[in-house]
Amino acid sequence: MVFTSPVFIVFFILVLLGTLINQKFFNEKTKQIFLLIASYFFYGWWDWRFCFLLLFVTGASYLTALYSKNKFAYFTGVIVPLIVLGIFKYYNFFLESLGIASTLKIILPVGISFYTFQALSYVIDVHREKISVEKDFIKLALYISFFPQLVAGPIVRAADFLPQLHEDGRKITAENFLIGIQIIAIGFFKKTVLADHLSIFVDDVFRVPVAFHWATIIFAVVSYAMQIYFDFSGYSDIAIGCAKCLGYDFSVNFNLPYISQNVTEFWRRWHISLSSWLRDYLYIPLGGNRLGKKRQLINLMITMLLGGLWHGAKWTFVFWGGLNGLALCLEKFSFKNKINLLKPLKILLTFAFISFTWIFFRAENFSDAWIIIKRIFTLQNGITQPFMWTFVALFIMIISEFAALIKAKKSKTEVKGFYPIFDLSTITGMTIFFTFVGLILGLAFTGENPFVYFQF
Amino acid sequence: MTISVILSLIILTPIAKLFVNPMGINVIENFDGVTDLRLQAYSFYPNLGEGFSPCKYNNEGYSNLFDYENGMSIDVLLMGNSNILASNIIQKYSTANLLINLTYKKIYNIGMFKHYFATCAVNLKKAVEKYKPSEYIVLEIMSASFTDEELKNILSQKVEKVRVITSKETNKSDFVRSIYYRYVRPGLHKILTHSSVLNLIYTQLLALLKHNLNEKIISYEYSTSQNNPVLLSQVLKRMAETVKNFSHGAKLIIAYHPSVKLEKDGSLKILGNTEAVKIFAYACEQNGIYFVDLSERFLSEYKKNYTVPTGFFNTSIASGHMNKDGHRMFAEEIYKLMQKIEGDKN
Fold first, then answer.
1. Is the peptide bond prior to A154 cis by the omega test (within 30 degrees of 0)?
2. Check: CATH 3.40.50.1110 for B19-177+219-345?
């Protein structure tokens, strides 16, 4: 059930109605049971068999966290999600990397990377006594399987979400709903109008890079940088909006990443829930910056290489992570403070570097990535083709970044992304909202195009 | 809320106008039989969803830079599907207008959506009777391979009329269908042709429900039907006779432009059934019909300067309708043939 499909819209309306009925006539507990059933239904829509896997991971986390002071229980709680992830996502990859032909065809369960990370963070946080153990299985199961974030994030922390399940005020209200649907609309626009249209051009060029002129390839690489941003942040917006409608809050997952002046800043603004997860549960436990400069470099590289691998069981993803890690290391110890460039130039250079790394993220294999890079740097001839939606997306991205800059300048705070939320009780607010919805309905790409991050 | 809806409709109208697909609810049935459908006279559909065509259709609802007046003398009549209609490019770059510039002849284009070979073959008589072209009738086709059933249908004049947008419709006039045609569609047509926004949303919803407007074009790309030489010859013979009997001495040219695909190694591949094209070409020759195959031209232009005949700045590359370059190649190849025919005559 893809967020942008008509089936999901029907599902979400039914969930809203069901939650409202629960709110009105039953207690919080039944509402949470209802949301849990809805979440499992949502997940089972792809393949009902994987609901058992989700239940298994949840059960293991629940039980081991209850006894997390026991080293064996804690170890089990950490290792079980990792084994599940390892088998379903990386088994064939590791065998193939060792040159062993695998006879086992394993289907990758949707969202496995996300919910295993949520389960892990819960067990670790309980063990670290950052949060108290959740004794109510329903609440824990709902935290891990809550449908807005289940299949493509954001990776919600137990410390952020479980307390919300204990609060009484978490309800569908007119205010929450009106904010929520505006955030959902923003997500829909990013995904169906911008990202999906960009994918047409990107797919063409990345499928047959040898056919294209070097300038067209650069254009496609920039288009992909925007496609993945609008696709993934659009998904996050829909998730945040859906949760908001139901009365729950998720943190932002993207904060204008392409306004970053260096790669370090980029990773503070891009897929925030993953980068902070990797920082808290991998980089810092490895020693972070506490064990000297050399060790910090190693820790950074390990974190980014594993971060790359998290995205997909392919060496191109590991290499992508490695390139980012390398840039972070260089910035940490040499360039960042020594190079004094104009801000726009810094932003442009960072965007160019990040776009370059996306080549490895998007290419089918190293050979394709190499063809793309070679064709760009040797100025190869080929099909020249501009693409309208790249200009549209670029225009919208620049406008929204300028809006954030102006807002930050006015309030004298850090540049932050924000949702333009309007008061829907006024004619102006309502008109803007209807216009926006009309734009989505009229311009949305109507072919099939699943979210990029579903594969992870 | 009502005020907000009205205001947003007003704000969205100029944007929607740019994107409305001229196909769909906008086509109307044509009762003179020259084509099954036509657009409304002087309608304007820039069609930014695939290419861009900022021009109005003429008084008959066809894509021409001039109006048709009864008794007007026509030198060349262009027939075919949406490719020759050219609703995706600036009108002056269409095959029709390029041919006008190349030949200085009076060329009239009645290309229309979904008017593939079978429909044009059936409509040929009425088209020739009405416009009486004096020099050529150019029939554009994008598939040259047909099943026996398709050919038999042409011979018995039982080709299904092109009606409205969905390909799922059949000739069965069941109750729901008759209700739809009698009440729903006229009502929808009235509302949607007056609101570009609703018109665009309606088309989008149809596309979402898998009634893709271009589905037939895609399916033709992979046609494997083998031409039956006997049946095909009968069809072409009848077409040649129609032209001979009802035109002012015009010659029939059938111009075939195949679909193309970019291969992984960067080469351009011609799609379609090449054996069937050979049979078609031979049958044309046997019946005194000139046949133009654009395959070689498409390949050589790609090899020379990486020009692809289909795809636009807002759609997939090397797919969909003919673009500006596709029309240029198409017009030039027809012009070459005309020069050859006229050279031979002299």
1. yes
2. yes
